[in-house]
Specification:
alpha/beta; seven-stranded parallel β-sheet; 9 helices; 17 strands; elongated
Length: about 350
C-alpha cells in the first residue's frame, strides 16, 4: 500500500428522510480543521435515495465536495448496501481519513468498511487532531475504564477511520453562500441480491426523558450521599427549569434511570449551563460534559478533578450549599415574575 496515494478528509453524512443527523454536521466542523491543517479538501459523502437536495446543506456546513450515491436500494440503511456504496467511493477516490458519527448506524457501517478495507478504526473518539508531518490522524478516547485518555494511530493502513460521539465536536455556522462540488457516482445494486429486507419502519412515539438537548442540566454524583439527599438535585432543577442528570455511580445505585446518565457510557451533553454537584470529575464523566458552555462545580474536595474543567467552582458541602442556592433561585424567580432567563 502506497500511503501517498491517499489524500483528503471525508465525513459520512448520515441522513434519515433527508434530515441530516446532528453529529454529521458536528464532524464537518471537526473535519474542516483537520483538512485545513493537512491542506486537502473536506468532503462529505451521502448515500440514500432522492437525496441530492441534501448536498448543498453539506456544503454550507463546511464541505468542499460532496460525493453522492443515489439508488432506490439505499433508501433505508442496511449494512450490506451502504457498505457497497462506501467501498465504491473509498477504493476509487482513496481518502486518507474517514469520520463517522458514533450512532448505531455509523458504528455498524464503520466497522463493516474497516473489515473490508483491512484498515484500523478507533471507536467512540472524543478528541481529534492530526500529526501534519506524518499525516497521521490522532484519535483520542477514554481507555482502561475511563481512567486515561489513549491516542490511537493507524500508521500502516489507509484510510484512517474513527467514529466520534455526538455532542463532543462543534458544527460550524452554516453559510449558504459557500460553493462546492457535487460528484455523483452510479452503483449497481439489486434488491433481490440483498440478504436483508426492510419490511416495516416503526417510529417510537413513547415519551422518554432526554437530556442530550437540554439547555441547563443539574447533575449529581455519589457525593450527594444517598437517594434522599439526591432529591436536592431534583429540587434545584425544578426551581431553575433544568433537566436532571447523574453519574454512572448514581445510575448503578438506582437513583436515576440510565437515560439520564452523563458520561462515556451515557449521554454526551453540551448545555449552556451545567451544574456538577458532588461529582469528583473522573475522565469517563468529564468526556460527556466538558463542552458545556458554563460548568459550575460544587465539591468539598478542593483537589477534585472536576474543578479543572469548571468555569466556576465552589468548595464546600453540597448538602449545605444546594439548599442555599435553591432559596436564592426561588427568590430570584419571585422577583422575575416566575421566569428564569439564560440568555
Amino acid at each position: 500500500m502506497n500511503l501517498d496515494d491517499y489524500r483528503g478528509v471525508w465525513v459520512f453524512i448520515e441522513q434519515n428522510e433527508r434530515n441530516i443527523e446532528g453529529v454529521s454536521l458536528e464532524l464537518l466542523g471537526a473535519g474542516r480543521k483537520l483538512a485545513d491543517k493537512l491542506e486537502v479538501p473536506l468532503a462529505g459523502f451521502l448515500l440514500g435515495h432522492e437525496i441530492k437536495s441534501v448536498a448543498n446543506q453539506v456544503i454550507s456546513y463546511g464541505a468542499d465536495e460532496v460525493y453522492l450515491v443515489d439508488h432506490p436500494v439505499l433508501k433505508q440503511y442496511r449494512t450490506e448496501s451502504y457498505m457497497q456504496g462506501v467501498m465504491l467511493l473509498a477504493r476509487k477516490y482513496k481518502p486518507e481519513i474517514i469520520l463517522y458519527g458514533a450512532t448505531p448506524n455509523g458504528k455498524d457501517l464503520a466497522s463493516a468498511v474497516a473489515t473490508d478495507l483491512s484498515t484500523g478504526l478507533t471507536a467512540d473518539t472524543t478528541m481529534l487532531d492530526v500529526d501534519v508531518t506524518n499525516r497521521l490522524l490522532e484519535a483520542s478516547r477514554p481507555a482502561f475504564g475511563g481512567n486515561i485518555m489513549a491516542t490511537i494511530l493507524c500508521k500502516k493502513h489507509r484510510p484512517q477511520m474513527a467514529t466520534v460521539r455526538p455532542k463532543v465536536m462543534k458544527a460550524l455556522d452554516p453559510d449558504s453562500a459557500r460553493v462546492g462540488k457535487i460528484i455523483e457516482e452510479k452503483i449497481d445494486l439489486k434488491e433481490e441480491d440483498m440478504r436483508t429486507k426492510v419490511l416495516q419502519i416503526v417510529n417510537d412515539v413513547t415519551k422518554k426523558v432526554s437530556i442530550a438537548d437540554a439547555h441547563v442540566i443539574v447533575c449529581g454524583g455519589k457525593g450527594m450521599g444517598d437517594l434522599q439527599n439526591f432529591q436536592l438535585i431534583h429540587e434545584l432543577a425544578d426551581t431553575i427549569g433544568a433537566s436532571v442528570g447523574g453519574t454512572r455511580d448514581v445510575v448503578e445505585a438506582g437513583w436515576l434511570p440510565h437515560e439520564q446518565q452523563v458520561g462515556q457510557t451515557g449521554e454526551t451533553v453540551t448545555p449552556k449551563i451545567y451544574f456538577a454537584i458532588g461529582i469528583s470529575g473522573a475522565i469517563q464523566h468529564v468526556v460527556g460534559m466538558k463542552n458545556s458552555e458554563f460548568i459550575i462545580a460544587i465539591n468539598k474536595d478542593p483537589n477534585a478533578p472536576i474543578f479543572d474543567v469548571a468555569t466556576y467552582g465552589i468548595v464546600g458541602d453540597a448538602l449545605e450549599i444546594v439548599p442555599k442556592l435553591i432559596e436564592q433561585f426561588k427568590q430570584l424567580r419571585t422577583e422575575k415574575g416566575g421566569e428564569m432567563s439564560y440568555a
